[in-house]
Amino acid sequence: MSKVVTLPRFSVGVGDRFSHQAKAQLAACMKAAEAGVEVIPVWNKSNREHMIIGTEPGQTRAAADAAVKELGWKEPYFVDADHITLKTVERFLKPCDFFTLDVAEEIGKAAKPEDVEAFVARHPELIGEVRIPRIPEPFHTDVRFVKGVADKFLAAVQDAGMIYRMLAANKGEGNFVPEISMDETDAPQTPVELLIILAAIADEKIPIQTIAPKFTGRFNKGVDYVGDVAQFAKEFEEDLAAIAFAVKRYGLPENLKLSVHSGSDKFSIYKAIHEAVVKFDAGVHVKTAGTTWLEELIGLAEAGGSGLEIAKEVYREAFAHAEELCKPYATVIDIDYAKLPKPEDADGWTSVQYTSALRHDQSNAAYNPSFRQLLHVGFKVAAKMGERYLRALDANEEIVAKNVTTNLYERHIRPIFIGR
């Protein structure tokens, strides 16, 4: 086998809905490099987003490659087949070198009883007093508990194994970065549950380099974290401890790290993430996804003229089709419809009024989280505009790019990876 493709310590998932901001996003990573910290870009776009917008994964690859060439980026970079299953992976095989294995549909489905029994028999170390270094108190488990965890997650891990082996057969082992998403479940995994999941992943011989567990609190699209920050910090540190232990105990890749999904705009937990990765000398992958699309809208609104008119039209249409747009994202948005401005009022806004409502600046009294969340899921409206929207991005490239780069670097990369 040739050299294994390895994801470096720090990486940021950057969504680029319309394949126009790769250069501006890469510029943010270059600013991090100038500050002395390597943050690797991973361009991610899900099958659902490609279907809505009418694009192909190859376009994401082409935009990333072009940005890298134009800006002279010499470090690694990746294109993520975001949340793929066996049903959707085919179109991502050639252009992608990072695969987020989505096993959400299998979580909670009972595994075969004989598979659960075999798992428990293979792992007596998970029964009784389980000590994880750097977690002060031991965990006390019994056979029933381990069986229960295996029953909830084993089928999902086996499904991930099938996807991984299909990828390995097509791409070649070691030629891509595998991530497993375990965040779409009803409750956060405890450290010992995560350890059990990692043991099962090792049994499946999936060399994962990043795993996305579920954390406490709400990770709504495009707005700040809602929950107990101290509890999140505790869970995050304990998950880092569990991963470090699993790497040694089960022979998982040494660079295995946590992945934070829907990680954009979660400003209140960035300090906790930064302090934890420094404390544990660990890595982290944070997916920022749709925040870039909102910066495009902000840039268009800021430009005024036809750009502002397009931004207003996007809101007017999103408001009119709110139910349809929000339905696929119901579990990750909390919109107070009473706080949404009436489209006829928004139609009269200045550039400053529009950008003040949309830009994620919590010190601005005009900032409107409900307005922001509706527009976050409203990219379908811009997709229907087709070339008209893309031409507006081209015409206002400088001001849009400035917003994209500033948002990604100042509000995300710097507090997470560099620290203030």
Q: Low-confidence stretches at least 5 residues in length (pLDDT < 50)?
A: none
Largest sheet: 8 strands, parallel, barrel
Integer count of domains: 2
Number of E strands: 10
Structure description:
The mean pLDDT is 96. The chain is built from 17 helices and 10 strands. The strands form 2 sheets. Strands 1-2-3-4-7-8-9-10 form an 8-stranded parallel β-barrel, surrounded by 6 helices. A two-stranded antiparallel sheet has the order 5-6. The protein starts with 9 loop residues before the first strand and ends with a helix. With 420 residues, the chain is an alpha/beta fold. The longest helix is centred in the middle third of the chain and has 29 residues. 51% of the residues lie in helices and 11% in strands.
Topology:
Layout: E1 10-15, H1 22-34, E2 40-46, H2 47-53, H3 57-71, E3 78-84, E4 98-102, H4 113-122, E5 128-130, E6 139-141, H5 143-171, E7 177-181, H6 191-203, E8 210-212, H7 229-250, E9 257-260, H8 267-280, E10 284-287, H9 291-303, H10 305-320, H11 322-326, H12 343-346, H13 351-358, H14 369-376, H15 379-385, H16 387-395, H17 397-418
Parallel strand pairs: 1-2, 1-10, 2-3, 3-4, 4-7, 7-8, 8-9, 9-10
Antiparallel strand pairs: 5-6
Helix pairs in contact: 1-3, 1-17, 4-5, 5-6, 6-7, 7-8, 8-17, 9-10, 9-13, 9-17
